[in-house]
Amino acid sequence: MSERGHLVSIWFFIGALLAVYGVLILGAGIYNFFSPAEGVVLGRLHAGIWWGAILLLLGGFYTWRFFPGRP
Amino acid sequence: MNPTRLLTMGPVDLAIVIIYFAIVLAIGFYLKKYARTGEDFFMAGREMTAWVAGLSFISANLGSLEMMGYAAATYQYGMLVAHAYWIAAIPAILFLSIVMLPFYYICKTHSVPGYLKLRFGEATRGLSGISFAVMTILMSGINMYSMAVVMKVILGWDINFSIWVSSLTVALYVMAGGLLSAIFNEVLQFFLIWLGCLLIPILGLIETGGWSGLVARIQQNFPGQDYIHLWRNVGSFTDNPMGIHWTGIVLGWGLAISFGYWTTDFLVVQRVMAAKSLRAAQNGTIAGAFFKMMVPLIVIVPGLLALAVLPFPLVGESEAIASGGHSYNEALPLMLARYCGPGLLGLGVTALIAGFMSGMAGNVSAFATVWTYDIYRPFIRKRASDAHYVSMGRWCSLLGVFVSIGTAYLVMQFSSIIVYAQVIFIIFIVPLFGTVIFGMLWKRTSPAGAFWGLLAGILSALGLFLWVKYDPSALKYIAFSEHAKDMSENIYRAAWSLLVTVVVTVVVTWFTKPREEKELEGLVYGLTRIPSHEHYPLLQRPIFWAGVVGVLFIAVNVIFW
To answer: Could you tell me which residues come within 8 angstroms of residue B324 by beta carbon, excluding any fewer than 6 positions away?
Structure first.
């Protein structure tokens, strides 16, 4: 296992995925703000916008904090 | 496409699912170069931190069967199902961490059957290895089928498409990176499961006006029935929807099933055995216990919300098919459809797929280890190179998936898959706990006592199941009540099976020769030097955090009494 020291952190993968999901869900949430989806209970709360923003912030922080090569 | 599907995915939702598949495969192939030796492939190099080991430990348990099944069971039985996450998990996980892990860790075994080899010899190892391998494949197939049914019901996806695409994805990433890849993806899946499902209780409790509003709505919808208490309604078999008595919850669920699963099912134990130190393994296990205690938020609360807000009743699977209604198993997807709009829906569906994959990967990696180290190496090819065994591990990961797919098609014939899942688990795992715990804590336990106790436990669980199947009136003897439901019967059968294992082990041990004490060093309590953690600060000691989780466990039981 000589190369294990160069292993990219699992937290980087998680951060990157959550950041991408955050962008997609936030984007969908903004779109639905102007064009509401039908049949969603409590749609007026626009959960997509704030949940997407939380994912983006969380994912962005982990991506930055555990970016490969960062000390 | 199925016209009766619950949900319709938009382009953003599909993109979220596709990205998920891409990243789990990418992680698997990225990690392939780090999994060259047997220690890397089967034990992830024993280098995992406490957090990674702990999250993986709990994620491997969060299969789709678990999530969908217990949300459905909550609709049927109410808060009683939360016992599965509290009394049927927390004491056992803490016991694993503080009492049993030191033995597993110090003897440096690769598996639970491997421990039995060191403690009792080849016969007991062979029996437990084969029974574990059979159980793993059966459970894996059941998990796979339940996921495919969910995808068919909620998305209209073809059942064969769901089974093959999801299973081959798991096979590829486990085959490439072994346990390391499984663990990495399980940690990722842990986050997806929580972030994908957490919005349901948040929005649901907003809709119902908080917990008191939720309770009021359930009482209004189901007057005279108690769906919201843990202990208050189990003084009699007829006072609760499950038809169970508190003795069954404590002895069957809290002792036999719980300790069997959390302390000896290699699927979960393997994750913490991969930790970089004993203290990391113990702290990771306790972190897992904390998150396990929180799971009712994303599984039990959605089931209760279904009781509170759905304008139509859910029914059994066969009745749903006949009437065109919705079944209990749709409780969680129905809540997902209710609250999640575009984007969030894709995340929720990804959470369900991630749940399936984490459970499946747990089964496949544990199967590969037990097959290679506990069946193939001792009984088929004793002396081969490390590279040969790694190659065997890779190929049997793939083989395990193919056999599981076959099992998935087999279980399609059964009407109630969750009942069969419990039956299989009780037959193969509950007796194993009796054998392992006697091996660890009673040095007098003889190899013959362990073998015959384990075999008797397995056969008694199978026999009791068949007895009720062919003579339903036997239920009043096994579960002490003619009113016992399937889950209650399973719980009592587990207690009987454990009792048989214990009695036979003790009786046979009494008449047979134990092993010499010098052969048992590092394997048995009283003959093993357990490392002390007293030189660490209080906040780094496992016993401190076990105490914290223990207090929280008592608190939730009192709050929801």
So the answer is: B4
Domain with B156, as residue range(s), is 11-559
- Is B39 in the A-facing interface, judged by CB distances under 8 Å? yes
B5 is a domain residue: no
Distance CA A52, CA A27 (A): 8
Domain assignment present for B1: no
Q: Which of B30, B37, B188 sits opposite A1 (nearest CB)?
A: B37
Residue of A nearest to B14 (CA): A24
Query: How many structural domains does chain B have?
Result: 1
The average pLDDT across B372-382 equals 87
Q: Which residues pair with B315 in a beta bridge?
A: B327
- Distances from the Cα of B151 to the Cα of B159, B175, B352, B491, angstroms: 7, 25, 9, 29
Residue B221 lies in a domain: yes
The CATH number for B101's domain is 1.20.1730.10
- Rounded to whole angstroms, the Cα distance separating B132 from B455 reads 13
B433-472 pLDDT tens trace: 999 999 999 999 999 999 999 999 999 999 998 888 888 8
CA distance B399 to B394: 9
Nearest residue in chain B measured CA to CA from A26: B343
ipTM of the complex, rounded to two decimals: 0.92
Which of B33, B183, B189, B339 would you mutate first to test chain A, the one with the most A CBs within 10 A?
A: B339
Would residue B184 count as lying in a domain? yes
- In the structure encoding, which two tokens stand for residue B436, read together? 């392992």
Query: pLDDT band at A2, cuts 50/70/90?
Result: very low
What's the confidence (pLDDT) of residue A1?
Answer: 41
Q: In chain A, which residues have their Cβ closer than 8 Å to the Cβ of B199?
A: 47, 51
**Which residues in chain B are closer than 8 Å to A7, comparing Cβ atoms?**
31, 34
Give how far B439 is from chain A: nearest CA, Å.
Answer: 34
Q: How far is A48 from chain B (nearest CA, A)?
A: 6
| A35 interaction partners in chain B (CB closer than 8 Å) | none
Identify which of B184, B188, B199 has the shortest CB distance to residue A51: B199
% of chain A surpassing 90 pLDDT: 56
The tokens describing B376, both together, are 């193939």
A8 contacts B344? CB cut-off 8 A = no
Cβ neighbors of B20 (< 8 A, separation 6 or more) are A17, B192, B350, B353, B354
Is the minimum CB–CB distance between B480 and chain A shorter than 8 Å? no
Q: Residue A28 and residue B341: Cβ atoms within 8 Å?
A: yes
Which of B283-316 are b and which e, b meaning 16 or more Cβ less than 10 Å from the residue's Cβ? bbbbbbbbbbbebbbbbbbbbbbbbbbbeeebeb
